[in-house]
Structures are given as structure tokens and as C-alpha cells.
Amino acid sequence: MTLLNPYFGEFGGMYVPQILIPALFELEKNFVAAQEDISFQKKFYDLLKNYAGRPTPLTLCNNLTQGTKTRIYLKREDLLHGGAHKTNQVLGQAMLALRMKKKEIIAETGAGQHGVATAIACALLNLKCRIYMGFKDIERQSTNVFRMQLMGAKVISVKNGSGTLKDACNEALRDWSKSYKTSYYMIGTAAGPHPYPTMVREFQRMIGTETKKQILEKENRLPDSIIACIGGGSNAIGIFSDFMDDKVNLIGVEPAGQGIHTGKHGAPLKHGRTGIYFGMKSYLMQDKEGQIKESWSISAGLDFPSVGPEHAWLSSINRAQYVSITDEEAINAFLILCKKEGIIPALESSHALAYALKLMKKNPYKEQLFVVNLSGRGDKDIFTVNNILEKKEKYNESISRNV
Amino acid sequence: MNRYPEMFKRLSLLKEGCFVPFVILGDPSLEISIKIIEILIKNGADALEIGIPFSDPLADGPIIQKASLRALSKKNTFSEYFEILKKLRAQNTQLPIGVLIYANLIYNQGIDNFYWKCANCGLDSVLIADVPIEESKIFYETANKYKINSIFICPPDADDEFLKKISLYAQGYIYVLSRLGITGIEDKTPSLSKDFIKKIKRYNSLPLLQGFGISNAIQVKKAILSGLSGIICGSAIIDIIEKNFTQENIMFKKIKDFTRLLKISTQ
Fold first, then answer.
1. Has A85 been annotated as catalytic?
2. Where does the record place the catalytic residues (chain B) (predicted)?
């Protein structure tokens, strides 16, 4: 029996091979005990404050909204050590691993952000770590691979299947089912089998708690909407969690990739079906036979064919609203934020910003107050964006020549 | 209809162990896969465990993963799989046939619909690789409705509490893992201790089959001697398919020889 409810409505659960069940029970037991342990919480808080740099600021965008009555605040997770919200929860999980006396960490990574965060936490807390990464992602994200290696992590190339995040996830679970007695599996998002979705949310909850305090100080009221991007959904669930019972719109933005109609997207919440994959029941991108499809997004961090089960539930009960933004819209938002506010956002977070800007343009004279979770910084994405801009330029040149 | 008790009774009278080969349906193609299954039956399979290919088989090692992808690349449909299973049943009325499948494939076609089809094909059992006992309720109840046995897995480090639990649910046989981890070939697969096997038997009377890592005659003999009813062998057979599928006749011959060898080892 689990100590906590493994389900969010009909979503969630523990759909793993039987051998992993004891490992999940052990993890849950330790997580519950750590949540009640004041010294654990104190140490976690201390690391967040003095190592990672919390609280992160809430920044008002004055230039971006000029000529409108919209006010947009950015929750600046991009300023966190490591460059994204990921650092929060890996510190929590690494402390949990120590508490469980596990000296080895297993992790999976897509773009490398969770891998880098894991490597950071492991270096700091003197844990050995191995990180599974699809061979295609290793090629695409060589600087992140180097970062992980600099901090002492072993990056293992996954050649099975499509060689991307979903295969890295499978491979990490395979490793764990062999080695769980000595190793700890550090999942990178609020997805996977129970207790991960709950645990990762709790280790990201401070994003929402801080935001609430900060917006009340600055505006003396709650925002109309909170907007966050959704891959697995950890930054979104982190910032949503403190506003669940408030009269605030919670908006999650999935990647529409090259357009929902092309099938090249990563939007299972609105355009997938319920299924069972990666240890959980949730929305999935799958073909009519039930085989898992590959997702697509310009932003590697959103490129995942499923989504955390709590989001699936929030969508099913209409507590949160889920929308999608294409690669192109995200890149435009990326460029605008660079130019207008001097902030280079991650392409992931650019999806959330793009939707805020869309709402702003739709109703320029409506007084509205938005908080966008700027989940990460975009230094990692500048080459991707550059490639796209160059391609566009060439395309425009060839058009103008033909005209 | 369930054929496991009959089969185990017959083997125990003969004082033989049970040999269950496992292959992925449609690997490397539907036609060849059917021929392979026929060879397995003709050369000593006491029961069959048939894998339905899935895109993300996370309980399986590289050999079975690749087999699944080979099968999926042919884009066969579920109705085709079920048709083959139905024919197989018609040709082998006494042979226990089970399928191994991942949860999403069942969920996707509707749990009730899936088990109805299984019953319609005359299948004896279903093992869901990513559904532990803790999540099995709806699958289990539906399987019971259609008189399909639910097969459960017993880890090699199971404690008394788990053994008690599995004894309440297990049907057909218990799939005892040789070791932790995923499927694959290993020469050094440790044999299960006699004490552990005795302990499982204290809680239930179902036959025990050992699986994971079994690839040679010595392992099979050891398993039978240690008190198990038999073995399940998948990756080692599929490895022959992977290495030889471009030369069918050689592949067929190798599978035949290997099957015979393992069956003889159970005697």
C-alpha cells in the first residue's frame, strides 16, 4: 500500500515492472518522512538560498507591453544557478538519495538541462552519477554534454529506438530495475510512476509560493493568469501549486511544433489520448494501434510524447487550461524578449511568453495582469535560433531574387 | 478453458521439466514468425509465450527491443496478430498459449475488448510487463470474466509479504525471475536458491517457471533440479533470429537445434 494517493483523478499510478515496486515504495516512504523532517527542510532551504540563489526575482516587463493595458511579470527561474528551475528539485532529490544512503544517481536527459542540473547536485553532494541521453540529443547538445562531464557525470549514449528523450527514459528505468538497491533514479520532471509526480511538484512548489508573495507585494492582488510551458510539466506544476484554490487562470502551454495539423508537435494534453507509458496513466501521443509516437518541438525540453499526470487531471476537470504555441511563435517571442527587455529566455519558456503576448495583442486595452514563468535562460538555444534565422534569410533572399 | 494444469500434470508424470520458448510475433516478418513458432512447437515447446511488439518495451533488454522494432517496422495490425493466434490455436488444441504485452496496447483497444478477443482466440494467459499486482485490479477482473489466466512475476528478492500477496492472485504459473533487471542473455545467471524456491512453494502450489537470462542447457538443468517446474527462454532464441534472419534456412535449423537442446535438458 502506498502512503500517499498515487492517482490524480484517473491519472497517475505505478505502471512499472513488478521488480520496481519495492523501490518506489521505499522512495515514497523516505520522501514522506523527509517532508516531515525539519532538519531536511532546513537544509533544503539553505541550499536553495545560499547555493542556488533563491528567491528568484519577479520582473515587470515595461517595454514589452507598451501601448497596452496588460502588465506582464516574469518569474525569473532563468536566474537560478544552473540556468533553469530544474536545480530546485534535483537538490531535493539528491538530498533524498543521501538520506536513503544511495551513492549512485541515475538520470535521463533530453536537451541536457536536467542532466546538467543533476550533475550540479551530484558534484555538490558528492554523489556518483550516470546520465542517459539519446545519441541524437548528444549530437545536438554537445555543450551540455561537456558541462555534465566537467562536473564529473558519466554521459551514456542511448542508441536504441529513436535515440531521443523517450528512449533515454526507458533506458534509465531499465538501469534502475537492475540497480535500485544501490542507486537512486532522479527523474527530471513531474512525470513517471508515483511518487515522482507528487515529489517533483513538492520540490518545485517554492516557485509558486514566492510568486504569490511577490505579486501581492507589488500589485496588492493576485494575477489574472499564470502562464507556464509544459513538457513533462514540472515548472508549470511548481508555479501553479500555490494558486490551485485561488481565482487565478492557470494556463499551460504545450509545443505545437511545426503545427498541430502536421503531426510534428509535442502536445499530448490537447491532441493525444489517455494511455499508459513511462510508469503512469496520462495523455499520450500514440498511433491508432497504441504504439508511442515521437514528439517534435524546436525546444528540446518540451519534446516529450507524454505529460505529467497531474496536468492530465487538471485539464480533465477544467481547473487549468492548456493551449499550444508553434515553433515559429516561440522564436518570435524569444527575439522580442531579447530586444525589448534584455533577457534571453529559453525556447521552452518562450512558448509561455508567446501565449501571454498573444493574449495581450488580442485585448490591448483590457486591464490584465499576467505572470509568465520564465523557467530557464536561453544561452543554450542561441545556436538553434541562429540556424533558423539564417535559413529564413536565405529563403527570403531566394524569394526576392525570384520576384 | 485452461490448458496449463493439464500440461503440468502430463510433464510431472513423465518427470520432465517444462520448456516455454518466447518470441515476438511478427519478428522478422509475420510469415517467417509463423514458421518459427511452428518449429518451436514441433521441436519440444511445452507451451508458448508470444510477445506482442511495443514501441517502448521498458522491461526488455536490447535483444527483445530490437525484435519489437523489427516487427513494428512491418506495420502489422492487432487484428492480424489475433488472426494468427487464432489459427495457431486451431492447429494446436492442447498447447497452452500465453501472450506477453505492455499495458498501453491493452488500454488502447479497450480492456474488455482485448480480453474478449483473447478468449475468442483461445489464449490461456496474459502477462502484462508493466502492470504490477498493485495496478492489476481492472485487468485481473476482466481477465477472470473471460477465463484468461493472469500471469504474475515474482522477483528473486521477494519477501514474505509479497509471496503472500502473489499467492492470492497468481493463476496458471508463477514467472520467477532469475535476477533483477531486464530480459537478456547471460551465461552467469545465478540459479535461484533451493531455500527461496521452497519459500515460494510454502505460500502457493502453482508451478514455478524461471525466466530472464536463460540461454544454455546447464542453466535449464539447474533450474529443474532446484525444484522449479520449468523455464522460459526468450532472448537466446530471438538472438538467433537477429543474427540469421537474412538466411532463413540456417536460422530455422539453428532454432530447431537450440529448441531440441533446451527441451532435452528438461528431461
1. yes
2. 49 (proton acceptor), 60 (proton acceptor)
